[in-house]
Specification:
Elements lengths: L3 H10 L7 E5 L2 E6 L13 H9 L3 E5 L5 H8 L3 E6 L2 H10 L4 E3 L9 E6 L13 H10 L1 E12 L23 E8 L2 E2 L3 E4 L3 H10 L4 E6 L4 E6 L1
Parallel strand pairs: 3-4, 3-6, 4-5, 6-7
Antiparallel strand pairs: 1-2, 1-8, 7-12, 8-9, 8-10, 11-12
Helix pairs in contact: 1-4
């Protein structure tokens, strides 16, 4: 991968901000992802993220930390935070911004244990596909200390398949409707497409139960999104 996401974060961090990221999926047109949004403080975060940070306790793992905004907030509250990301640029920026413990790492390579694991900004995206959810949850469970918790958010994107009459045009012979191809471009360059998963709560709950994790909704968002707690 070209790590265009990391390049964009580094540009913003180093005062070279001239353009935003452009994102799209196989079912949606181009959308602008403003770089300042990726450096937001607590007051600018959505309610789901604020609630997750309020509920974080003990030793915390911030999965897909990006620029480190969530980690910095928790670190400033006195929590022991480890941040990981697969973007080298993101890791560099998080370090420069003051996150004390940051590593370039895929979640499936993590082996430490934690009291709270955070997967935010559509945290189920890292699962990539529906048939990989159980394997990821099994692994995440091994990273939990006694009485530990996973705080994860996602959205049920069924609404994106509605026609003007309120009917659904989901192909029942195709893959799960929340499995998307995710495209990102920056300054005229295109990143390699990624698999990205939006997971409805019912399927998350079923997968959690299959690996003996309790799963409950903590908070519903304003647009088909939710924050869940697994324990």
């Amino acid at each position: 991968m070209k790590d265009l996401f990391g390049k964009a974060l580094l540009d913003y961090q180093h005062n070279n901000y001239t353009e935003d990221l452009i994102t799209s999926t196989n079912i949606s047109v181009d959308d602008v992802l403003p770089l300042p949004y990726l450096f937001r403080d607590f007051s600018e975060m959505p309610k789901l993220e604020q609630e997750a940070l309020k509920r974080s306790q003990g030793k915390v793992l911030d999965v897909g930390c990006g620029s480190g905004s969530h980690s910095l907030y928790l670190q400033n509250k006195g929590l022991d935070v480890k941040a990981i990301d697969i973007s080298l640029g993101a890791v560099k920026v998080a370090k420069e911004r003051g996150v004390k413990h940051v590593e370039l790492k895929n979640i499936m390579k993590e082996s430490d244990t934690f009291d709270t694991i955070l997967l935010l900004m559509n945290g189920t995206g890292v699962f990539q596909k529906l048939d990989l959810v159980t394997a990821h949850l099994k692994h995440l469970k091994t990273l939990l200390n006694t009485n530990g918790q996973i705080l994860i958010d996602s959205s049920d994107i069924k609404y994106m398949y509605e026609d003007d009459d309120g009917g659904l045009w989901i192909d029942t012979n195709a893959n799960y409707y929340g499995e998307l191809d995710y495209f990102l471009s920056y300054k005229g360059e295109d990143e390699e497409p990624m698999k990205w998963l939006y997971l409805d709560f019912e399927r998350l709950q079923l997968a959690s139960q299959s690996v003996r994790l309790q799963c409950e909704i903590v908070l519903d968002g304003e647009h088909f999104d939710y924050l869940a707690r697994l324990s």
